[in-house]
Structures are given as structure tokens and as C-alpha cells.
Amino acid sequence: MTTGVRRRMGVEERRQQLIGVALELFSARSPDEVSIDEIAAAAGISRPLVYHYFPGKQSLYEAALRRAAEELATRFVEPREGPLGARLLRVMKRFFDFVDEHGPGFSALMRGGPAVGSTTTNAMIDDVRQAAYEQIMSHLDIAEPPVRLTLVVRSWVSLAEATALLWLDGREIPRAELELQLVHDFAALCAVSAAYDDGMAAVVVRILEQEPLEGPFGELVGRLMAIAPTVMEQVVADDRTA
Predict the structure, then answer these.
(1) Residuewise pLDDT in 10s, the chain (242 residues)
(2) What is the DSSP string of 194-235?
(3) Residue 180 Cα distances to 96, 161, 242, angstroms
(4) pTM score, two decimals?
(5) Angle at CA 177, nearest 5°, toward 171 and 181?
């Protein structure tokens, strides 16, 4: 017969345990609904001991958000192999894996939650967005990117964030469809920008040259070509009745 002995944790180990427990609880429910007593019980320690490692719920909450932000930033890391469209789709799948698994925590991070407006939280959000931007730019591998490309990539990162938040409110659209749509959105943003800038036009041509017809970008072209005749017929009909 063995007797269970609780192992004594070091200070940093205990801090990391509490952050992990808090993040798990915040991922299942809104941080406002999680109490210090619940965190203590889940960690197997007393309420006063939680306060020994963190001065209050707010500091523990911010530490949990920091870990969530660091994990979220890694979801944009992707090997630079294969067509860009396929890479972006893999990134979106990992991004939505995180959103799906940590819904309330993701919302708290991006919307601020109890820490809304705090300098610390805003800095964490900015770090995630910057990491995502740098990863996407690295895949484009352009020594001197056009100014419009910077706008496109940053706009797309914001679009992915906003789309995920809206999806969490009701999950009314299948996840896989949104992941693919966001990849198509990236191509569409680039294409529209290319209509105004020669540098962006060159970027789009370069991307499409490396894309297979069966890839995400090829699929978008196919979808647009399929609806083009209907749109043109409607335009002609409108002109005749005008």
C-alpha cells in the first residue's frame, strides 16, 4: 500500500501551476465568473496561499492572459514550405483551434475583460498582432514591401481577430468555412490593393505564379469565375431597364 504525499513546489513552479489552472478556468468561463476560491481549490492549495504568489485576482488574470498571448502568437508560426495559400490555411486552422479551445480566454484577451484599457493588456494584444504580422510578412519574403502590403497584412490580422470574436458569439458558420474564407479574404485584399498600386500588382502576380489550381487561391478564382456570368447578366439587365 502506498501513501500519497503532496510534493512541495518551488516558488516559480507554483506560480506556473496557478497560471495554468487560472488559464484553464478562464478558458471555460468568463474571468469575471471565476473566483480566487475556485482557483485555489483547482490548484489544491488554500486561498491565502494564492495571495502569497499573486497580490490579487487581477495580477493572476494578467499572468494567465500573458501565457495565452504567448501561445496564440505561436499559432502563426508556419514552415516556409509550399504555396502561400496552403500555409495560410494551416495557420488559420491552428488559430481557430486556439479560439475554439479557449473561447472566453480569447475574448478576454482581445476585448480586455476585467483588464480592459490596461496598459499591460493592450501591450499583450499588440505583441500578438505584431507577431502575426511579422510571420505573414516573412512568408511573403519581399525585401522592400510596398506600403500597401503592410496595410493589407495588418488589416487581415485584424479581420481574423474580429471574425473569430464574432464567430464565438454564436458559431453560426462552420469553422472550416471561416478558415478558408479568411484565406480568400487575404487574397481579395491583395487583389483590390493591386488595382491601385504597381508594387502590389507585382506581389499578387508573384503569389499566383506559385499557387496550384487546386489550392485555396485557385479555388477562390474558380468561385469568382462561376458567379461572374450571373453578375454580368444582372448588370446588362439593369442597363436595359434604366
Answers:
(1) 344 445 578 888 989 999 989 888 887 787 788 899 999 999 999 999 999 999 988 888 888 888 888 999 999 999 999 999 999 999 999 999 999 998 888 887 787 655 545 677 788 889 999 999 999 999 998 888 999 999 999 999 999 999 999 999 889 999 999 999 999 999 999 999 999 999 999 999 998 888 888 888 888 877 777 876 765 556 555 666 66
(2) HTT-HHHHHHHHHHHHT--TTSHHHHHHHHHHHHHHHHHHHH
(3) 11, 15, 38
(4) 0.81
(5) 115
Long-range contacts of 181-185 (CB under 8 A, 24+ apart): 182/88, 182/92, 182/156, 183/85, 183/88, 183/89, 183/92, 183/216, 183/217, 184/216, 184/217, 184/219, 184/220, 184/223, 185/156, 185/159
Give dist(CA 42, CA 34) in Å, integer: 11
- The residue assigned the cell 500573458 is 66
Alpha-carbon separation of residue 41 from 35, 46, 132, 224 (angstroms): 10, 7, 36, 55
End-to-end Cα separation, the chain, in angstroms: 91
The half-sphere exposure of 164 on its side-chain side, counting CA atoms within 13 A, is 28
Per the listing, cell 496561499 goes with: 49
CA–CA distance, 147 with 138 (Å, rounded to integer): 15
Q: How far apart are CA 9 and CA 167, in angstroms?
A: 40
Task: Please name the residue that has the C-alpha cell 503532496.
Answer: 6
